[in-house]
Design goal:
single chain, alpha/beta, Alkaline Phosphatase, subunit A, 2 domains, 8-stranded mixed β-sheet, 5-stranded antiparallel β-sheet, about 45% helix, binds (2R)-2,3-dihydroxypropyl phosphate, binds manganese (II) ion, Sulfatase_N, metal-binding, membrane, Lipoteichoic acid synthase LtaS Type IIIa
Length: about 625
């Protein structure tokens, strides 16, 4: 009896801390990360998956004696809590979990700080509750001080390992292929726990680094064969139509298709774009294909017709690669190539990646007059941005290829009252409510830009590629979204369809415009622009195909492996019939899913292996 009592004294503080930490993580899973489960087994997994890492991390305290040991217990709880907390903040913004590459994007942290205060909640203090209790227990001398016994550390480590193995086995039964589908981060967290997920992610990242070392020139052959197999001939009517013209690319921040040709309280949300669409080719089944790299991912796709990474931002991880980018190709064709964006040049590591893409010029924040009056939220207001860009544009050699990246319609969608041209929505989501006025404002700024281009005589000699960079309203706002869309609920299928972003090709003076319903994505922009310019793309390493090609296949794959064709949609493990949204057998999606997986795999191979250095 005395023995048991002694053992209990040794472990009780440790056990209490482990218990608190697991409870806290579970509560956070449910209420912070809103993780849903389908059955009781999944629920149990969710409850116990924090256990192995908690036992191990807090068990490190057994390497110490006395007061230090007790303090280490608190420190390790705090450490794990910090991991939870940073994930929580990230999740509130991106509906996603942190990855190692994202963590190293520290240069973005400063710029994000404005948004961070928006993301904090008073209830976050709850995260510190157990730590405070543990600390009080120590201060009140209610925890006995123990001397170190090496065996104990071995015991807890073995316990942690066994718990983990049992956890993993159950998870594999529940979710076959769990570890091969590492792009599904929620699934990983749900099954092996958030801390273990971070360890696993670290392992995957280091592996991808190794791939470059082992790649050689023969690897590119497979990619080129795939390209030739999937190459689609251009539409002869449009091939070369833009030759010699300026190309103006407008990357519109967080613009989704659901606002196009829609009204809020009777007012058009995007009146200018709606008019422009009538005079353009408009693609209404066009998807963004970005992941954690957001705007930078969209830039990567457009410049290379390669897919971005499934985690982190390729702009950070692979800026040292060799690329055969659109700006580089256009430079060779005598174009002057530039980007205009009023933000720090190092944001998203743009300065490095733009050098790799061989842009002639990056007009960053230093080229703009940015002050308190003309800024809001993330920086220079779109209207001022466009106005000031006109001068820069006028001074460029012609023909030019220039990309503009807007900023005002960025989370948390701040806008001064005087710039509100439409009211806020009145749902439970402040984010969605505020989205409409900033979208309306961006539309207004665009209208102004077009007027100015006409005044300066640039409009007629240019063609325009206009698209939304990625979603602006995350999955966290489903309820508000269902109110706006007047639906009972937002299903997984709806959520996927919400990943559509507007895409316009506007050719001044062109008459055969129409709304096109091709299933397509950002990956298709590069070959489209090249064909409009009369450039051959057959032997180029790219994965998209010309949006105007008569031979186009109705297919697009999103970076999370979801695929869309004209007949079916596959997302989150379920296959739907397009016609009526009914769940159907996986067989209906199988071919497209495989095609999508191949595309992503080959594209990753190009990036991780830095294969374009052999091209
Ligand atoms: C930052 C701007 C926004 O310069 O492009 O980036 P995002 O957060 O949308 O990726
Ligand atoms: Mn963006």
């Amino acid at each position: 009896m005395a023995k048991i009592k002694a053992a209990y004294d040794h472990y009780k503080f440790f056990l209490l801390a482990v218990f608190f930490l697991c409870m806290k993580t579970y509560i956070l899973y449910k209420f912070g990360f809103k993780i849903k489960t389908d059955n009781i087994l999944q629920e149990i997994l969710l409850m116990v998956n924090p256990l192995s890492s908690a036992v191990f991390l807090i068990g490190l305290s057994f390497l110490f004696s006395g007061l230090t040991r007790n303090i280490i217990v608190v420190v390790m709880s705090l450490f794990t809590t910090a991991i939870l907390f940073f994930n929580l903040l990230y999740f509130r913004f991106f509906s996603d979990f942190l990855t190692w590459p994202v963590l190293f994007q520290t240069s973005n942290a400063k710029d994000l700080s404005g948004s961070v205060t928006e993301l904090l909640k008073f209830t976050d203090l709850f995260l510190l509750m157990d730590i405070i209790i543990l600390a009080i227990l120590i201060v009140m001398k209610m925890i006995p001080q123990q001397t170190q016994v090496k065996r104990q550390f071995v015991y807890v480590s073995l316990a942690a390992l066994s718990i983990f193995l049992v956890n993993l086995t159950i998870a594999q039964v529940e979710r076959p292929q769990l570890l091969t589908r590492s792009f599904d981060r929620e699934m990983l967290v749900k099954n092996i726990g958030i801390v273990n997920y971070h360890v696993y992610d670290g392992y995957i990242q280091s592996q991808s680094k190794a791939q470059r070392v082992f790649a050689d020139s023969s690897d590119i052959t497979e990619i080129l064969d795939h390209r030739i197999e999937n190459y689609k001939e251009p539409d002869p009517e449009l091939f070369g139509i833009a030759e010699g013209k300026n190309i103006i690319v407008l990357s519109l921040e967080s613009l989704q298709s659901f606002v196009i040709n829609e009204t809020l309280f009777g007012e058009e949300i995007t009146p200018f774009l709606n008019e422009l669409i009538k005079d353009s080719y408009y693609f209404d089944q066009f998807y963004h294909q970005t992941e954690q790299g957001k705007t930078s991912d969209s830039e990567f796709i457009v410049a290379n017709s390669l897919y971005p990474r499934d985690s982190g931002a390729v702009f950070f991880t692979h800026a040292g690669n060799e690329y055969h980018s659109l700006p580089e190709i256009l430079n060779e064709e005598g174009y002057y190539t530039s980007v205009m964006h009023a933000n720090n040049k190092s944001f998203w590591n743009r300065d490095m990646m733009y050098t790799a893409f061989e842009y002639d010029q990056f007009f960053d924040i230093n080229y703009y007059d940015v002050n308190e009056e003309n800024s809001i939220g993330w920086g220079l207001k779109d209207l001022d941005f466009f106005e000031q860009s006109i001068q820069l544009l006028k001074e460029q050699p012609k023909p030019f290829y220039s990309k503009f990246i807007t900023l005002t319609n960025h989370f948390p969608f701040e806008l001064e009252e005087e710039d509100h041209l439409i009211s806020e929505f009145d749902s439970n989501s402040r984010t969605l409510n505020r989205y409409f006025p900033t979208v309306r404002y961006m539309d207004y700024a665009l209208e102004h830009f077009f007027e100015r281009l006409k005044e300066e005589g640039i409009y007629e000699e240019s063609i325009f590629i206009i698209y939304g960079d990625h979603y602006g309203i995350s999955e966290n706002h489903k309820r508000a979204m269902s109110l706006f869309l007047e639906k009972d609920e937002i299903t997984d299928l709806d959520q996927l369809q919400l990943q559509r972003v507007p895409m316009l090709v506007h050719i001044p003076g062109h008459k055969q415009n129409e709304i096109k319903h091709n299933v397509s994505g950002q990956i298709d922009i590069k070959p489209t622009i090249m064909h409009l310019l009369g450039l051959n793309t057959k032997n180029d390493v790219q994965f998209g195909s010309d949006l105007f090609s008569p031979e186009r296949e109705e297919f697009t794959v999103l970076r999370d492996g979801s695929v869309i064709t004209d007949k079916a949609v596959y997302t989150k493990g379920t296959c739907y019939r397009k016609m009526d949204g009914l769940e159907v057998s996986q067989l209906n999606c199988q071919e497209a899913v495989e095609k999508g997986a191949t595309e992503l795999r080959l594209s990753d191979k190009v990036i991780y292996g830095d294969l374009l250095r052999f091209y």
